[in-house]
Structure formats: structure tokens, C-alpha cells
Amino acid sequence: MAGHESIVQVDAFTSRPFAGNPAAVCVLDGPRADGWMRAVAREMNLAETAFLVPEADGWGLRWFTPAVEVDLCGHATLASAHVLFESGLLAPGAEARFHTRSGLLTARRDGDWIEMDFPAMPATPCAPPAGLLEALGAHSIVAVARSRFDYLIELATAAAVRALAPDFHRLRVIEARGVMVTARSDRPAYDIESRFFAPGSGVDEDPVTGSAHCSLGPWWAPRLGRDALRAYQASARGGLLHVRVRGDRVLLRGQAVTVLEGRILGANGAEVHEHES
User: CATH homologous superfamily for 5-116+256-264?
Assistant: First the structure.
């Protein structure tokens, strides 16, 4: 079936289908036009679609939401590693090496888990921008901070995090990739809980956001007095991450499961005419 690209949909940061965060993964034999990748991402309409291209010492990896290309994505990287291991493109004991907009990212398989090595992105306390707290509808605020990509809001209780019902229209104008809201967990299975909102990037609420934990790990490790954390993202789908802070790196461990396999019929990397909005 020449001219057709294979695509796999993976639920990441979960051990069961229809939970965690779904990502589409397209393994290509060579580069494709940006417009084509954007069109595929819009067609998939998931938080992210990942595109892998083989390189001499690993894989080129790019991530697209239905609206924009992003600089860092955890769950679609986990999904990409899962696809490479499951398909046999990588041996079980091999290291997955991804060349990305955020530098070299690596991943290794450990039984049913995959551990990824990501850059730490500490958040620095700051004043909230106008309209942010009102858009979130957040109360009992402990701290507001800003990382490279996102705002971080700490609330007094995990129940308050779970109860949030943001105004996405108002949140869309905040100048950041997204907003993470977090608290210590009130459940013994977890240390911290969070939710992540990114309407300005085309995703009102991201089900499980690996890259947010590059900030959540460094934020909570000193506050809880330990470097290893069990993190739960309390979206409707929910997802579990094991987070370990190591200096300027954060190790993210998660599970993943394949839910769909298919082929993209139509333009195979050819020019795509994008309509002006």
C-alpha cells in the first residue's frame, strides 16, 4: 500500500485502554511537510500527534496539537517509545533517543514501565497575570509561579484542584502554553495531584501532562522532603506518573497501551492547502 502512512493511537500514563492521555504516533521513513503534519494532527484531534523520523543515532521527534507545534510533550514521547518497543524497531533493552526542540530526550523500558529522562523546568514564584485566577475560579491559593512554558498554581487542597471548572474562553488569552494547578494529595496512593489547562494551545484540559511534571517535580520535592513522587493527574480520564528529580533532570515513569492501529489514506507528505480562518 505505497503512499499510505501507518499511525498508532496509544493511551499513555495508564495500564488500561481508554484512560490516561491518548496520543497518535506516526513513524515515517523520512521528513514530511509541516503542513501535512499539522493536517494529520487536526484530523486526529488529540492533545498531541507525534511524528518520528529515523536519524543516525536515534529518532527525530516532533509534536503537534490540533492547533500548534509544541516544544515539549511527555505523554506523546512515552507513546512514541512504546510504539518503537512494541513494533520491534527498538530491542527491549535498547535506549530510545529522541532529538527534539527541547534537546535530546531518552527513554528505556523496564518491564511494563517506560522511564523517560527530561529536562527539569523549575517554576519561580511570581504575581499572577491579570485575569488568571478569575478564569480558573480558584480559591485557597497557596502560591503562583511561572516555568519556562507554563504557570503553576498551588492550592491548599487536592479536593479544590479536582473541583475546578475553569472558564476556558477567559483562560485562552493568558500568555503561556498552559496552566497547571496542583496540591498535596489527600489520598494515600499518591503524593501530589494536578490538572493542566491549555486552551490557548488548542487543548482545554490535557488528560495527563508529562512535561508539566518537569516543573511539578522540582516544585514538590523540597516541599515534601523527597525526590521520588507518585503523581496523579486528576482529569476525567486520570493518569499515574512516577517522578524522580535528579538535579537538572527529571525522570518520568509511566505505562502505555496501544488502542488503535491504522493507515493514513490520502496525501503522503504532499503539499496540503490550509484554509485561512
Answer: Diaminopimelate Epimerase; Chain A, domain 1 (3.10.310.10)
